[in-house]
Amino acid sequence: MAKFKKVLIANRGEIAVRIIRACKELGIGTVAVHSTEDSQAMFVKLADESVCIGPAPASESYLDKSAILSAAVITGAEAIHPGYGFLSEKEDFVEMIEDHEIAFIGPSSKIIASMGNKVEAKRTAAANGLPVVPGSDGDCPTLDSAKSIAKKIGYPVILKARSGGGGKGIHMVASEKELCQKFPIAKAEAKASFDDDAVYIEKFLTHPKHIEIQVLADNYGNVVTLGERDCSLQRKHQKVMEEAPAIVLPEKVREDICAKVRKAVREIGYTNAGTIEFMYQDGKFYFMEMNTRLQVEHPISEMISGVDIVREQLRIAMGEKLSVSQSDIKLRGHSIEFRINAEDPDTFVPWPGKVEHFHTPGGLGVRVDSGVYDGYLIPSCYDSLIAKLIIFADDRDTCLARAKHALDEFIIEGVRTNIAMHKELIQQKDIVSDAKYDSTWLEKWIEKRNVERAKQQEKQRKEDERKAKASAQKAKDDLKKLSSKGVQSVKKRTK
């Protein structure tokens, strides 16, 4: 296949900027599609062409398949890059693109359909030698079937939406009574979020790490892994900070799981970039899901491997072979990504608004992926992620030290962000010393922090109250003294 002359980016924000930059390096023209709300966004300004595809709500713009496809046809785009989120894993969208003989920068619609169905993906993973979590072989259509499986594998269990993703459609269940309560809720939530009410059951692992393997595969059977990422710091199943490599993995364990992943990906017939996510507990891996797209946290894999993942995606979609083999990839150093969100650092409520000042940190090993600038108006209708701070160093200790000064230098004024929370996190012993934190650690830490802050606030309230009473009493006493002196002065004058 010949080199693309023009690629349409079906996304927004920092990831759209990231893709545009990769296209420019390859001499490929770019088309940005945007909502009316994003008309002044950086990605729109950087693209060679732009097309407004609808009003602010994502359902009427970034999720409008026909509008995006029409924009591609009108502008003569030969390929579409979906980024992450939105339509990146919607097989019907990819089918539409394929029907119009436009290249999709990602796997085929058939593969997306197969791996996007969590039940089918689990079966596929097991059939290709990947370890899986004990649970239902398929979905659980009725409460009775769910009870039967839960009784067999033992509580606690977890209910998951078959078509789920992004942390949605997940419910932990500790008993049969709770299963009776949550089963209909889980099905209703799955239907509302994914238009598919099917759910399945897995054994709930109590203290797992979330570890994922980055994969690249071309159309000629060549598959490489770029090491693993530890994504265990999560709040409500949403990743907050990620690092690579996962220092808890012995080298032999790392090599073994990466070899199994490469073999499975090759046999599945997967192409382009993908990520296989595992839970890791007590020295064992358990397949969780495959993300058939570019990940938010892909930069840390780029930093330790030296491979430009988006560039490889483009090359693969143009019919080229991978530019590297597994023997070429020498993982080195350590990298950490901090997701910078426009949100209250204590309540996590999104905080849209005008960015009065945006100053990014710099120096060796400091990278910022963002679509924000001075005066930019952060919309209220999209995800609160506004930047990613990516740190790289020769070792983890230096990486953490570099992250500390980078976070101190990162200045965003006009809106609230979670930078303050990241500063707190990298001072916690569980993170700094051995990285043995699991996927439950962050929520426990937040809860403990909130309790401690509430105690401090109550203590401060009582102290302020005591001081106010003391001040009032002093004023009363002073007034009494003044009144007494006044009376004595009058008595002296009358004498």
Write a structural description.
- This protein has 495 residues and is an alpha+beta fold.
- Helix content is 41%, strand content 23%.
- The protein has 15 helices and 20 strands.
- It has helices at residues 13-25, 42-46, 65-75, 91-99, 109-116, 118-127, 143-153, 176-194, 251-268, 298-305, 309-317, 396-409, 419-425, 429-434, 441-494; strands at residues 6-9, 29-35, 49-54, 79-81, 103-104, 157-161, 170-173, 199-203, 209-217, 223-235, 238-244, 272-281, 284-291, 334-341, 353-354, 357-359, 366-370, 377-378, 385-393, 411-413.
- Strand 2, helix 2 (42-46) and strand 3 (49-54) form a beta-alpha-beta unit.
- It is globular.
- The termini are far apart.
Rg value: 27 Å
> What overall geometry do the principal axes of the alpha carbons give?
globular
What is the CATH architecture descriptor of the largest domain?
A: 2-Layer Sandwich
Quote the CATH topology of the largest domain. Answer: D-amino Acid Aminotransferase, Chain A, domain 1
In DSSP terms (H or I, runs of 4 or more residues), the helix count works out at 15
Beta-strand proportion = 15-25%
Question: What is the count of β-strands?
Answer: 20
Task: Using the coordinates above, name the CATH class of the largest domain.
Answer: Alpha Beta
The poorly predicted ranges are: none
Spatial order of the strands in the main sheet? 13-12-9-10-11-14-19-17
Question: Helical residue percent?
Answer: 40-55%
Count of domain modules: 3
Q: What do the pLDDT scores average to?
A: 94
Largest sheet: 8 strands, antiparallel
What is the rounded distance between the termini? 116 Å
